[in-house]
Amino acid sequence: MRRDSIFYKLFQQSPTLLFELVANPPTNADSYRFDSVAVKEPKFEIDGVFLPPESDGTGIVYFCEVQFQKDEQLYERVWAESSLYFYRNRSRFSDWQAVIIYPSRSIEQSDIHPHRSLLNGGQVHRVYLDELGDIRQLPIWVALMVLTTVDEEQAPEEARYLLTRTTQEMLSPSSRAIIELITTIMVYRFEQLTQAEVESMLGITLKETRVYREIKEEGREEGREEATANLILRQLTKRFGELSEEIRSSISGLPLPVLEDLSEALLDFTTLVDLQVWLEAR
Which is it for strands 124-128 and 93-102: parallel, antiparallel or unpaired? Predict the structure, then answer.
């Protein structure tokens, strides 16, 4: 399940959702803007950055990390990303805080002792979705986050409940955005099902939403990326011999436009060093 894109859409639609998860949200939470940024040298990808309104002068910047797989160096990476971004933008912000979202405590990094000061100091907020309570009692936007974690047997029933609740409680365009997100979550969770089977499960017609068309296009895009990356890897292996796992992973993770640039640039490479320099520059 591609949870990164789902949570990106959630925060994009409702930036204030993050502040429903922290005990002491800023008083101007409604004015925050969500962004996703990359910090180079070295390159870090930050899942989400919540920026205070510039009109209020320096404010608190919030970093968000959504973690659904165990990573034993997650906190080291998050502190490095956050500190570097804060350092480079120090004049814009008075402080920083971080919110780490887990499906459950079992996914959290095992050795947290080196990070005890930050984790227990009020600057870092750890959220465990399975501990937020009954999905039907949660605010609708928080319930959407929890929907990504419930058991597959339970998910269809809870999705139908949230669809009904949305049509009863919300007004357009908010209701439309929520319906789109519910269907997105369910199509991602049940990728093995046909369109007709997902429609029957949810009791709606997917052609009434953008989700099915967007996901099919996303699938085609991913297919093009994979095919292009595989072609480049074969060409490089033929020229320079077996590639390291690090290089293969770096190339496989490139977006399609960059892969297309690489397919042209590699014609001028004479050694692996040329490739490594090219990758580091991006």
Answer: parallel
